[in-house]
Amino acid sequence: MVAPFQLAGNQVEPGQRKILQLALAQLYTQTPLMMPLEVIHGKFPGPVLLICAAIHGDELNGIEIVNQVLARVNPARLKGTLIAVPVVNVFGFINKSRYLPDRRDLNRCFPGSEKGSLGARVAHFFVNNIVNSCTHIIDLHTGAIHRSNLPQIRAKLECETTFSMAESFGAPVILDASIRDGSLRGVAESRDIPVILYEAGEALRFDPVAIKAGTRGILNVMRTLEMLKPSATKVKMNPMIAKSSAWIRAEQDGLLHLTARLGDRVSKGQCLGFISAPLGAETCEVIAPKNGIVIGCLTMPLVNEGDAVCHIASFDAVKQAEMSVERFVDELDIHPQTF
Ligand SMILES: [Zn+2]
Q1: How many Å lie between the centroid of ligand 1 and the Cα of residue 141?
Q2: 215-252 residue pLDDT tens
Q3: What is the secondary structure of 23-76 as a DSSP string?
């Protein structure tokens, strides 16, 4: 039997689940603003896994993923502890905004400080009360507003545990991504906490593929960390690791007609769509600059010159990557065309 779990002055007994409301800040009205979270503390020792969503307040898929994972974890059988924070940027969430009220991006404010800006204080609160208590992290994101992402993991793969979390998640694509200053990934790495970031779908939308793949992915990682029993029907996933990725930018202003879809294999020089003017026949083609797989798309047709319209990941073996994406889509039984 393990000891009770302590978090921000609260105690959770072994074999118990508890919803906590942590006092984060106050609104202008001086109404308290709480950060809700749930802790499931297993009866057996094991890792302390943090799953968190909506560091960008308008990224909703992760919130539903957190909910669906919580519904599937039984505290009587869990090894270790699950800390689930569905909404980190509570300010942004209630404003349907990616940002904080001071227009800062919370994911550039870590590790934060007690006496700094609002963003620095929220980041400091989250690190102090939650991040410092965990041993592993899965951070859930979506594409920005009007941009949708194929389910993908971003992680720094040189750490063995991070690599095994990324691989076992089972998303079709892994980007070996460097860490941005001020991000949750950065603060986790500085504390030697293995962390993976899941990106899928679009801001302000629920996406069935993204939610299903994310829920399944977290449960897969929990099995790999031996927090849950192995699945009887476990299928070994072979996600493809992208060596690089780049956005194609619009070369003129106008209306975008994108024919390429998430998960499509594209070849260098291939036409992926065109940009037209509201009147007249003058169009400009969107051309793939290299071979790869489409992992992100603009979903809104109005573009200015320079806007990012299509995100292409490059692989050593594109054919194999395409098969990996196809297999993933078959398993989830939903085609990415429904994005
Ligand atoms: Zn995000």
Answers
A1: 4
A2: 999 999 999 999 999 987 766 667 889 989 999 999 99
A3: EEEE-TT--EEEEEEEEEE-SEEEEEEEEEE-SSTT--HHHHHHHHHHHH--TT
Averaged confidence pLDDT in the chain: 93
**Residue 233 carries which side chain, given as an amino acid letter?**
T
pLDDT (tens digit, 9 = 90+) per residue, 56-91?
999 999 999 999 999 999 999 999 999 999 999 999
Residues flanking ion ligand 1, Cβ below 5 Å: 56, 59, 141
- Within 10 A of 306 (CB to CB), how many other CB atoms are there? 10
- 281 Cα: distance to centroid of ligand 1 (angstroms): 38
CB neighbours of 8 closer than 8 A, spacing ≥ 6? 20, 22, 129, 130
* In contact, 73 and 228? CB cutoff 8 Å: yes
Tell me the per-residue pLDDT of 318-339, one tens digit each, with 9 for 90 and over: 667 677 777 776 776 655 443 3
CA–centroid distance, 212 to ligand 1, in Å, is 18
Give the distance (Å) from ligand 1 centre to CA of residue 43.
Answer: 33
Where b means 16+ CB within 10 Å and e means fewer, 50-74 reads bbbbbbbbbbbbbbbbbebbbeebe
8 A C-beta contact, residue 275 and residue 303: yes
Positions of the chain with pLDDT lower than 50, given as ranges: 336-339
Output phi, psi for 78, to 5 deg.
-75, 135
For ligand 1, the distance from its centroid to the CA atom of residue 11, given in whole angstroms, is 31
What 151-154 contacts at long range (C-beta under 8 Å, 24+ apart), as own/partner pairs, is 151/198, 151/199, 151/200, 151/201, 151/209, 151/210, 151/213, 151/214, 151/217, 151/328, 152/198, 152/199, 152/200, 152/295, 152/313, 153/196, 153/197, 153/198, 153/199, 153/217, 153/239, 154/196, 154/197, 154/199
Region for 132 from its dihedrals, namely left if φ exceeds 0, alpha if ψ lies in -120 to 50, beta otherwise? alpha
Ligand 1 centroid to 4 CA: how many Å? 33
